[in-house]
Amino acid sequence: MKKPRYTPLQISIHIFGWYPLAWLVVRGLTDNLTANPIQAISQWTGYHAILFLTLSLACTPLNTLFGWRELLKRRRALGLYAFMYASLHMLSFVGLDYGFSLKFFTEGTATKPYMLMGITTFLILLPLAITSFKWWMKRMGSGWKTLHKLVYMAGITAVIHFAWAKKGDLAGLSGDIVKPLIFAILVALLLILRLPPVRRWASQLKQKTVSILKPKPV
Ligand code: HEM
Protein backbone atom coordinates (compact mmCIF):
# COMPACT_ATOMS: atom_id res chain seq x y z
CA MET A 1 0.00 0.00 0.00
CA LYS A 2 1.24 3.50 -0.84
CA LYS A 3 2.49 5.42 2.22
CA PRO A 4 0.37 8.52 3.02
CA ARG A 5 2.15 11.73 2.08
CA TYR A 6 1.58 13.39 5.43
CA THR A 7 1.55 11.72 8.83
CA PRO A 8 -1.21 12.49 11.42
CA LEU A 9 1.37 14.28 13.59
CA GLN A 10 2.49 16.43 10.67
CA ILE A 11 -1.11 17.38 9.84
CA SER A 12 -1.87 18.17 13.51
CA ILE A 13 1.23 20.37 13.80
CA HIS A 14 0.27 22.39 10.72
CA ILE A 15 -3.35 22.82 11.85
CA PHE A 16 -2.17 23.86 15.31
CA GLY A 17 0.48 26.10 13.71
CA TRP A 18 -1.95 28.14 11.59
CA TYR A 19 -4.87 28.15 14.02
CA PRO A 20 -3.60 31.07 16.21
CA LEU A 21 -3.09 33.25 13.13
CA ALA A 22 -6.53 32.35 11.73
CA TRP A 23 -8.07 33.11 15.14
CA LEU A 24 -6.36 36.50 15.18
CA VAL A 25 -7.52 37.36 11.64
CA VAL A 26 -11.14 36.33 12.36
CA ARG A 27 -11.17 38.27 15.64
CA GLY A 28 -9.63 41.28 13.90
CA LEU A 29 -12.10 41.23 11.01
CA THR A 30 -15.08 40.88 13.37
CA ASP A 31 -13.86 43.66 15.67
CA ASN A 32 -13.42 41.24 18.53
CA LEU A 33 -9.89 42.01 19.70
CA THR A 34 -10.77 43.49 23.12
CA ALA A 35 -10.70 47.20 23.97
CA ASN A 36 -6.93 47.23 23.39
CA PRO A 37 -6.38 45.37 20.08
CA ILE A 38 -2.62 46.10 19.86
CA GLN A 39 -2.04 44.60 23.29
CA ALA A 40 -4.27 41.62 22.43
CA ILE A 41 -2.27 40.97 19.24
CA SER A 42 1.10 41.31 20.97
CA GLN A 43 0.14 39.05 23.88
CA TRP A 44 -1.44 36.39 21.64
CA THR A 45 1.51 36.26 19.21
CA GLY A 46 4.10 36.40 22.04
CA TYR A 47 2.38 33.56 23.85
CA HIS A 48 2.28 31.37 20.75
CA ALA A 49 5.91 32.16 19.92
CA ILE A 50 7.05 30.82 23.29
CA LEU A 51 4.63 27.89 23.11
CA PHE A 52 5.96 26.68 19.74
CA LEU A 53 9.53 27.33 20.86
CA THR A 54 9.00 25.12 23.92
CA LEU A 55 7.33 22.42 21.81
CA SER A 56 10.29 22.41 19.41
CA LEU A 57 12.64 22.09 22.40
CA ALA A 58 10.63 19.11 23.64
CA CYS A 59 11.11 16.96 20.49
CA THR A 60 14.60 15.58 21.22
CA PRO A 61 13.98 14.77 24.92
CA LEU A 62 10.64 13.12 24.08
CA ASN A 63 12.38 10.95 21.49
CA THR A 64 15.01 9.99 24.08
CA LEU A 65 12.33 9.11 26.63
CA PHE A 66 9.74 7.42 24.44
CA GLY A 67 11.59 6.58 21.23
CA TRP A 68 9.19 8.68 19.12
CA ARG A 69 11.59 9.28 16.23
CA GLU A 70 9.16 11.18 14.04
CA LEU A 71 9.37 14.10 16.47
CA LEU A 72 12.96 14.73 15.34
CA LYS A 73 11.66 15.45 11.83
CA ARG A 74 9.03 17.85 13.17
CA ARG A 75 11.40 20.12 15.13
CA ARG A 76 11.93 22.38 12.16
CA ALA A 77 8.22 23.02 11.54
CA LEU A 78 7.63 23.80 15.23
CA GLY A 79 10.68 26.07 15.32
CA LEU A 80 9.51 27.90 12.21
CA TYR A 81 6.06 28.45 13.69
CA ALA A 82 7.79 29.86 16.79
CA PHE A 83 9.72 32.21 14.53
CA MET A 84 6.59 33.18 12.57
CA TYR A 85 4.74 34.19 15.76
CA ALA A 86 7.87 35.89 17.15
CA SER A 87 8.10 37.94 13.93
CA LEU A 88 4.41 38.90 14.09
CA HIS A 89 4.87 39.74 17.78
CA MET A 90 7.83 41.97 16.97
CA LEU A 91 6.00 43.55 14.02
CA SER A 92 3.05 44.34 16.27
CA PHE A 93 5.35 46.64 18.28
CA VAL A 94 7.46 48.06 15.48
CA GLY A 95 4.44 48.55 13.22
CA LEU A 96 1.36 49.09 15.37
CA ASP A 97 2.94 50.63 18.47
CA TYR A 98 5.79 52.62 16.89
CA GLY A 99 4.39 53.20 13.38
CA PHE A 100 7.48 51.55 11.79
CA SER A 101 9.68 54.33 13.15
CA LEU A 102 12.99 52.68 14.02
CA LYS A 103 13.98 55.84 15.91
CA PHE A 104 10.94 55.65 18.26
CA PHE A 105 11.35 51.89 18.56
CA THR A 106 15.00 52.09 19.64
CA GLU A 107 14.25 55.00 21.99
CA GLY A 108 11.30 53.11 23.46
CA THR A 109 13.16 49.86 23.99
CA ALA A 110 16.60 51.12 25.08
CA THR A 111 15.48 51.71 28.66
CA LYS A 112 13.32 48.60 29.02
CA PRO A 113 15.31 45.47 29.88
CA TYR A 114 12.37 43.15 29.12
CA MET A 115 12.14 44.55 25.58
CA LEU A 116 15.89 44.10 25.13
CA MET A 117 15.49 40.48 26.26
CA GLY A 118 12.71 40.04 23.65
CA ILE A 119 14.94 41.52 20.93
CA THR A 120 17.80 39.24 22.03
CA THR A 121 15.50 36.22 21.74
CA PHE A 122 14.38 37.32 18.30
CA LEU A 123 17.97 37.87 17.16
CA ILE A 124 18.85 34.33 18.28
CA LEU A 125 15.85 32.84 16.48
CA LEU A 126 16.51 34.73 13.23
CA PRO A 127 19.69 32.89 12.07
CA LEU A 128 18.23 29.60 13.30
CA ALA A 129 15.14 30.06 11.14
CA ILE A 130 17.19 31.14 8.10
CA THR A 131 19.57 28.18 8.36
CA SER A 132 16.90 25.62 9.23
CA PHE A 133 16.74 24.32 5.65
CA LYS A 134 18.61 21.27 4.32
CA TRP A 135 20.69 23.39 1.96
CA TRP A 136 22.24 25.26 4.93
CA MET A 137 22.61 22.08 6.93
CA LYS A 138 24.78 20.59 4.15
CA ARG A 139 26.75 23.78 3.61
CA MET A 140 27.51 24.41 7.27
CA GLY A 141 28.54 20.87 8.22
CA SER A 142 29.23 20.44 11.95
CA GLY A 143 28.84 24.21 12.52
CA TRP A 144 25.12 23.79 11.89
CA LYS A 145 24.62 21.68 15.00
CA THR A 146 26.66 24.09 17.11
CA LEU A 147 24.62 27.05 15.87
CA HIS A 148 21.33 25.28 16.47
CA LYS A 149 22.24 24.57 20.07
CA LEU A 150 21.49 28.27 20.57
CA VAL A 151 17.80 27.36 20.54
CA TYR A 152 18.18 26.52 24.25
CA MET A 153 19.55 29.98 24.89
CA ALA A 154 16.47 31.35 23.08
CA GLY A 155 14.28 29.24 25.40
CA ILE A 156 15.94 30.78 28.46
CA THR A 157 15.85 34.39 27.22
CA ALA A 158 12.22 33.96 26.07
CA VAL A 159 11.17 32.78 29.54
CA ILE A 160 12.96 35.72 31.21
CA HIS A 161 11.34 38.11 28.72
CA PHE A 162 7.91 36.56 29.40
CA ALA A 163 8.30 36.93 33.19
CA TRP A 164 9.56 40.52 32.93
CA ALA A 165 6.83 41.46 30.44
CA LYS A 166 4.31 40.21 32.98
CA LYS A 167 6.06 42.33 35.66
CA GLY A 168 6.76 39.10 37.50
CA ASP A 169 9.81 38.17 39.56
CA LEU A 170 10.74 34.53 38.91
CA ALA A 171 13.46 34.50 41.58
CA GLY A 172 11.24 36.09 44.24
CA LEU A 173 8.14 34.19 43.07
CA SER A 174 6.08 37.37 43.10
CA GLY A 175 3.84 39.15 40.59
CA ASP A 176 1.94 37.61 37.68
CA ILE A 177 4.23 34.63 37.24
CA VAL A 178 2.08 31.48 36.99
CA LYS A 179 2.37 31.07 33.20
CA PRO A 180 6.02 32.25 32.98
CA LEU A 181 6.85 29.89 35.85
CA ILE A 182 5.24 26.93 34.04
CA PHE A 183 7.34 27.72 30.95
CA ALA A 184 10.45 28.22 33.11
CA ILE A 185 9.99 24.77 34.70
CA LEU A 186 9.33 23.14 31.31
CA VAL A 187 12.36 24.74 29.65
CA ALA A 188 14.56 23.84 32.66
CA LEU A 189 13.39 20.21 32.55
CA LEU A 190 13.97 20.01 28.79
CA LEU A 191 17.46 21.46 29.27
CA ILE A 192 18.26 18.97 32.04
CA LEU A 193 17.09 16.09 29.85
CA ARG A 194 19.60 17.19 27.21
CA LEU A 195 22.59 16.80 29.54
CA PRO A 196 24.59 13.75 28.35
CA PRO A 197 24.51 11.80 31.70
CA VAL A 198 20.76 12.42 32.10
CA ARG A 199 20.20 11.49 28.46
CA ARG A 200 22.10 8.21 28.93
CA TRP A 201 20.14 7.46 32.10
CA ALA A 202 16.83 8.18 30.30
CA SER A 203 17.62 5.90 27.36
CA GLN A 204 18.75 3.09 29.73
CA LEU A 205 15.49 3.51 31.64
CA LYS A 206 13.57 3.34 28.36
CA GLN A 207 15.36 0.12 27.33
CA LYS A 208 14.68 -1.48 30.74
CA THR A 209 10.97 -0.52 30.60
CA VAL A 210 10.67 -1.91 27.06
CA SER A 211 12.30 -5.20 28.08
CA ILE A 212 9.98 -5.52 31.15
CA LEU A 213 6.87 -4.78 29.08
CA LYS A 214 7.87 -7.05 26.17
CA PRO A 215 5.85 -10.31 26.29
CA LYS A 216 8.14 -13.27 27.09
CA PRO A 217 8.01 -16.29 24.73
CA VAL A 218 6.22 -19.27 26.34
C1 HEM B 1 11.83 42.38 18.96
C2 HEM B 1 11.50 41.47 19.82
C3 HEM B 1 10.46 41.60 20.92
C4 HEM B 1 9.89 42.71 21.50
C5 HEM B 1 10.17 44.16 21.20
C6 HEM B 1 8.95 42.24 22.49
C7 HEM B 1 8.19 43.03 23.31
C8 HEM B 1 7.20 42.61 24.17
C9 HEM B 1 6.34 43.45 24.97
C10 HEM B 1 6.35 44.96 24.97
C11 HEM B 1 5.50 42.65 25.67
C12 HEM B 1 4.39 43.11 26.62
C13 HEM B 1 3.09 43.03 25.87
C14 HEM B 1 1.92 43.51 26.70
O1 HEM B 1 1.62 42.91 27.73
O2 HEM B 1 1.33 44.50 26.29
C15 HEM B 1 5.84 41.30 25.33
C16 HEM B 1 5.21 40.20 25.84
C17 HEM B 1 5.58 38.90 25.55
N1 HEM B 1 6.54 38.49 24.68
FE1 HEM B 1 7.74 39.67 23.58
N2 HEM B 1 8.96 40.88 22.48
C18 HEM B 1 9.88 40.45 21.54
C19 HEM B 1 10.20 39.16 21.22
C20 HEM B 1 9.64 38.04 21.79
C21 HEM B 1 9.98 36.69 21.47
C22 HEM B 1 11.05 36.29 20.44
C23 HEM B 1 9.19 35.88 22.24
C24 HEM B 1 9.12 34.38 22.32
C25 HEM B 1 9.80 33.53 21.64
C26 HEM B 1 8.34 36.74 23.03
C27 HEM B 1 7.39 36.29 23.93
C28 HEM B 1 6.57 37.12 24.67
C29 HEM B 1 5.56 36.62 25.59
C30 HEM B 1 5.24 35.16 25.89
C31 HEM B 1 4.93 37.75 26.14
C32 HEM B 1 3.81 37.78 27.17
C33 HEM B 1 2.48 37.63 26.47
C34 HEM B 1 1.33 37.63 27.46
O3 HEM B 1 1.13 38.64 28.12
O4 HEM B 1 0.66 36.60 27.57
N3 HEM B 1 8.64 38.04 22.74
N4 HEM B 1 6.87 41.29 24.41
What does this protein structure show overall?
Helix content is 79%, strand content 0%. With 218 residues, it is an all-alpha fold. It has one domain. Helix 2 (37-66) packs antiparallel against helix 3 (70-97), helix 3 (70-97) crosses helix 5 and helix 6 (134-140) crosses helix 7 (142-148). The radius of gyration is 20 Å and the shape is globular. Bound molecules: protoporphyrin IX containing FE.
Give a quick summary of the entry:
This protein is mostly helical and 218 residues long.
Question: What is the CA-based Rg, rounded?
Answer: 20 Å
- Helix tally equals 10
Write the element-wise H/E pattern from the N-terminal end onward: HHHHHHHHHH
Oligomer type: single chain
How many strand units?
0
Helix content: over 70%
Spans with pLDDT under 50 lasting ≥5 residues? none
Structural class: mainly alpha
Number of domains: 1
How many strands, which pairing sense, and closed or not: the largest β-sheet? none
Strand residues, percent: under 5%
Bound molecules: protoporphyrin IX containing FE
Distance between the termini: 33 Å
Q: So what's the overall shape?
A: globular
Average residue pLDDT: 91
